[in-house]
Structure formats: C-alpha cells, structure tokens
C-alpha cells in the first residue's frame, strides 16, 4: 500500500469519525424504523401499485422480493441520455425474470452544459446538481422501494443523483450509464477551428460543421470531460458495474450488464449477509480511490467540487487538502483530450478501466478494503467484463495490459510523475488548477492583470485587439454566490490564441472552467469569491499576479496595507431572465467552492 494513500485514508477516517458515525447511525436507524414498504398502510400501498398489472400487484403484496425504484434522467435533447429511454422497461423485464418488480420512481432534470456554454442558462448548471439531488430524494421518499437504480451520465446529473441517493443509503443503489458515441472529428481539429473562429478566420457555417462532426449521435461526448470523469468515478466508487462505462451504447454486452445490475440489486436487497446497502459501498476508502482515479486520469476540475459534496453528504470530510496530498503519489496514466489527442474510445481500446485500475492496484495506490454490489475487493474492477457460457457477464482472468501506451501508460513509464490537479494558495485565497494539459513551461506565470466582469467583456477586448501582451486575465463575480458559478469554457479559444501568439497568459477566476480545461493555466474556483468578500474584488488593472503551479501558490503583489485600503468592487445586479430569478435563494445559501458549492448544509 502506498504510504501516502494509506495516510490520507487514515486521516480522512479520523477527521470524519464524528460526522460519519452520525451518518451511519442515521442510515441504520432509518432501516430499523422505516423499513421499505413495511410501515406503509394499505392505502399507501394501493396508491403505489395502482397502475401495475395484477400479476405485479400479487408479487408486490407478498413483499417477499425486491421492488426496485428507477430514478431516470432521460431526455432526448442530451445525447448521452437519449439511449436511456428504453432502460426502464428493460429493468422491469430483468427484475420480473428474477421474481422481483421495478417502477420508475421519478425523473430528474438533465441539462446539457454543451448547449448552455457561454449562455445565460449556464448560471443554473451547478445548482442543477442540487436540484437533481432533491428530485432523487423526492422519488425515493415514497419508501416503496427495497433498492434503486439511477440512470444518468452527464455533468451535474450523476453527482446530484448520488448526493440524493446517499440520503437513502440504507438501500442498495446502483448506477447505469449508456456509453460514449463513436469517435467523430478529432478533438484537436475541432479546437483549431474554434481558435480560427475566435480570430474571425472561420465563419459560423464552418464552425457548426466541425462541431456537428464532433457531437453527432447518441452517447456521451468523446472527450474526457466531466461526463466521462463521472463514469470513471462511479466505477471506482463501486456503484457502477466494472468495465461498463465506456462501451458504445449499442455494444452487445450492454443488455447483459443491465441484467447483471438488476440481479446484483435484487441479491443485495435481500436480508442476510449478502445485504449491501449503499453506505457500505461509499465510504472513506472508496472516496480516496475515486480521488486517485481522478488524479491518474487528469479528470475534470468540476470533481474538486462534486467529490467534496458527495463525500460530505455521506458524512465524510473530504477537502482540497486531500487532493493536494494525494497528487504527488499518483502518476498521470492517461492522455485523453484535452490532455492529449486521443478520445475516450481510444482509452477503451487501450484497455480501459480494467487496465487503469490494475495498474493503480499493482502500485498500491488503491484501497483494497472496499465493497461494491459485486462484493468485497477490487478483483472485478481490474478485469474487463466478458460474456460467460450462460450469457451472463463475468469478470475473470488477469488484469489487461495496455494495448496503446501512448493513451494509457504504465506505472513504470507514466506521462507525468503526479496527478493533473493541484491546489494553489496565496493572499487571494485558495483555488485549484488542472495542469495535465498544460506545458510545464507555462506552470509559472507572472504578469500584469486585466480585470473582466464576464466572458463577454474579455471577448470584446480580444475582438478590439486590446490584448497584446503578457496577461493574467482576472474574471471575477463568477462564483456560486454571484451567479451560480458558470463554466467559462468560452474563454478557452481566445486565451489559447494569445498563448499561440507567444504571450504568457493565464486565467484567475472564482468561476469554473470545465472538464475540457486545456493548455492555458487556469486558477479556478477561487475561494473566497469576489461576491463573498474575497480579495479578488479588490484587484485592479495593472496589478501583478504570480501563478506558480509547481510551488502551489497564487500571489497578488500588492502591499497588504494598500490592499486593505482598497474598496471592493460591488457585485453586479443579478439577471433574472431564463429562470435565473428562481435561484436567488440558492445563491444566498450556497457554500463556498472549497466546501463543494452546495446549498445543503451537511455537518
């Protein structure tokens, strides 16, 4: 066992002793006092079963087999979720074949961050995670279900579902994804056209054609953003079947994996030693494994928010310190766009999750004392799923070796000595940076500040040819209190062009970038944010900032006395169009980014 991974896990357990203990007590008390279906009246049950067939009603009334609740994030606007339309009926069929039943418990909202990038709707994106959590809880609150399955893939949806599910962790709960779309135009070609478009060298028709050749069919987007990071994390946590994440939506193994998920839930819901509630699966050890997986793959910066919020909803006091402590121990093992030219399908062909997990396990970088719906340990995680003789899925044989070390490296020859996420601290506060796609020559930048209040204002300055030198772009009032903490991914082409012109540039913001954070160093999630008294509100044009990813520092070179004497720039008025006015109460209540940017006040 790697001593750093072991120490972080031990520290996390000790730090979480009280809150985790209270959480587990609550889970067990819920199971004892409110067992599924057992306390419902005849009228309650009749309402819950009214639309079922007579055969289903007879099985349900006996309460001798599981009734599985389905939480569904299906819509056909979101490409990754479009395949889910058939899944509830397939789950019902699989359950019935086992003498059990299933019902759709609720739908949850599922927004597409790709549609809202750079648009007002992006201000609702992060808050949608907590809305999804509440919608998940509403569906399961009927207490009609012995187990649950969550159907979701993308950015805020999976974290939201898991946060909600963890309030029902006395039940077995599983996740099922749908897989990535086939590879389209190479991501680096798409990025090049985006940069040309930013310079006026490509028109809208050319850009739309390229974007449509990249995002072209049902399935997850193929770059390694938040959606695909979600899928990796669900496997590392043990709530999604090993090796299921990155199979194409029409892969012939998918139906068997769905059946196996339902079978595992039915078995886990039964009383006795095989009972596996969610609280046994998501614990300190599996959370650390998830962080290790994120670091080893250079995953989405959004998960420095989501994993913290997920952990705290389970009574686990994960913090940015844990990411920072683990990063030196975990080498970077993948090159998937944006930190390489390959996409997620290339990763799958190179060996996928089984190869990645096998390498990490071989290096002692994963906790072995973990539980999944398949039982204890890591054996299944390190083996690809294959069809067995009876048609059921099996996980057998040895962990695969990488078939393409330019995409999926070995521990003996990693792409970098440490993970792709780092914490920065200084007199402006605390933030994170993703360096897996950044050239080491750009890890340290010291430059004068240009302050912007929005993505649009930076774009206008770029279009006016007013950005012609080294620059730290400060984009403030983009935190959760200010406007819901939107992703600022639309800045990437403009900053990338400036870097390509030979300027030393970086971004400092209290907002987010995205899973596609790229080659320009970006200090993001700055806490405290400008709208909550952060020093970012006192930064002025011409100030000097040094961003040093190697040293882990972010410093504003202004005398403390002068900085204290400056007045903070006031928060701009919040816009209320496109539904944003409904979320004022969430902006007023939300925690800071370092605490997960959540409206839920977990202890």
Automatic annotation (TrEMBL):
Question: What UniProt keywords are attached to this protein's entry?
Answer: 4Fe-4S, Carbohydrate metabolism, Gluconate utilization, Iron, Iron-sulfur, Lyase, Metal-binding
GO CC aspect terms:
cytosol
InterPro entries on file: 6-phosphgluc_deHydtase (IPR004786), Dihydro-acid_dehy_C (IPR042096), DiOHA_6PGluconate_deHydtase_CS (IPR020558), ILV_EDD_C (IPR056740), ILV_EDD_N (IPR000581), IlvD/EDD_N (IPR037237)
Residue stretches making up the Dihydroxy-acid/6-phosphogluconate dehydratase N-terminal domain:
67-378
Q: What Gene Ontology terms describe what this protein does at the molecular function level?
A: 4 iron, 4 sulfur cluster binding; metal ion binding; phosphogluconate dehydratase activity
* Stretches of the chain forming a coiled coil according to its record: none
- The domain of life is Bacteria
The first-level EC class reads: lyase
Give the EC number(s) under which this enzyme is classified: 4.2.1.12
Look up keyword Iron and say if it applies: yes
Picking any one GO biological process from the record gives: D-gluconate metabolic process
What's this protein's family per the entry?
A: Belongs to the IlvD/Edd family.
Which PROSITE patterns does the record associate with it?
ILVD_EDD_1 (PS00886), ILVD_EDD_2 (PS00887)
Q: Where is the Dihydroxy-acid/6-phosphogluconate dehydratase C-terminal domain?
A: 407-597
The entry's protein name is: Phosphogluconate dehydratase
Gene3D superfamilies cross-referenced by the UniProt entry: IlvD/EDD C-terminal domain-like
């Amino acid at each position: 066992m790697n001593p750093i991974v072991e120490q972080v896990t031990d520290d996390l357990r000790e730090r979480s002793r009280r809150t985790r203990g209270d959480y587990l007590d609550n889970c067990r008390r819920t199971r004892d006092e409110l067992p599924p279906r057992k306390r419902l009246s005849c009228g309650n049950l009749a309402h819950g079963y009214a639309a079922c067939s007579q055969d289903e009603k007879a099985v349900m009334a006996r309460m001798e087999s599981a009734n599985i609740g389905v939480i569904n994030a299906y819509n056909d606007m979101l490409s990754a979720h479009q395949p889910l339309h058939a899944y509830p009926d397939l789950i019902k069929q699989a359950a019935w074949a086992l003498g059990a039943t299933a019902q759709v418990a609720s739908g949850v909202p599922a927004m597409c961050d790709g549609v809202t990038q750079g648009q007002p709707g992006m201000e609702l994106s992060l808050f949608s995670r907590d809305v999804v959590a509440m919608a998940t809880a509403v569906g399961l609150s009927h207490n009609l279900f012995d187990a649950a399955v969550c159907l979701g893939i993308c950015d805020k949806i999976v974290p939201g579902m898991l946060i909600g599910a963890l309030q029902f962790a006395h039940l077995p709960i599983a996740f099922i994804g749908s897989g990535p779309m086939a590879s389209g135009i190479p991501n680096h070609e798409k990025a090049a056209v985006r940069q040309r478009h930013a310079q006026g060298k490509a028109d809208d028709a050319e850009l739309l054609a390229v974007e449509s050749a990249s995002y072209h069919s049902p399935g997850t987007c193929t770059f390694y953003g938040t959606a695909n990071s979600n899928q990796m994390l669900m496997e590392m946590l043990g709530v999604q079947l090993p090796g299921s994440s990155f199979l194409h939506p029409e892969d012939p193994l998918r139906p068997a994996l769905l059946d196996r998920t339902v079978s595992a839930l039915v078995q886990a819901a039964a009383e006795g030693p095989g009972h596996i509630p969610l609280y046994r699966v998501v614990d300190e050890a599996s959370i650390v494994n998830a962080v290790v997986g994120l670091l080893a793959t250079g995953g989405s910066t959004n998960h420095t928010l989501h994993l913290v919020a997920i952990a705290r909803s389970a009574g686990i006091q994960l913090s940015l310190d844990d990411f920072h402590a683990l990063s030196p121990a975990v080498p970077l093992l993948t090159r998937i766009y944006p930190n390489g030219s390959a996409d997620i399908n290339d990763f799958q062909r190179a060996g996928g999750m089984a190869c990645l997990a096998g390498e990490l396990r071989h290096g002692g970088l994963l906790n072995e004392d973990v539980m999944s719906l398949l039982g204890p340990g890591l054996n299944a995680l390190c083996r690809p799923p294959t069809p067995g003789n009876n048609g059921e899925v099996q996980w057998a044989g040895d962990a695969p070796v990488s078939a393409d070390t330019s995409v999926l490296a070995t521990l003996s020859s990693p792409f970098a000595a440490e993970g792709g996420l780092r914490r920065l601290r200084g007199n402006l506060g605390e933030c994170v940076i993703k360096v897996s796609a950044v050239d080491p020559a750009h890890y340290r930048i010291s430059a004068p500040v240009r302050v912007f209040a929005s993505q649009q204002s930076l774009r206008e300055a770029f279009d006016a040819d007013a950005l012609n030198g080294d620059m730290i772009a400060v984009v403030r009032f983009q935190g959760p209190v200010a406007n819901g903490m939107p992703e600022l991914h639309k800045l990437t082409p403009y900053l990338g062009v400036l870097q390509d012109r030979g300027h030393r540039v970086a971004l400092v913001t209290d907002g987010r970038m995205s899973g596609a954070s790229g080659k320009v160093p970006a200090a993001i999630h700055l806490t405290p944010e400008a709208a909550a008294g952060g020093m970012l509100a006192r930064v002025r044009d011409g100030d000097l900032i040094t961003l040093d990813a190697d040293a882990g520092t972010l410093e504003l070179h202004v005398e403390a006395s002068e900085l204290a004497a400056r007045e903070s720039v006031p928060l701009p008025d919040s816009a209320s169009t496109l539904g944003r006015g409904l979320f004022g109460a969430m902006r007023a209540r939300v925690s800071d980014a370092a605490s997960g940017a959540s409206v839920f006040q977990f202890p």
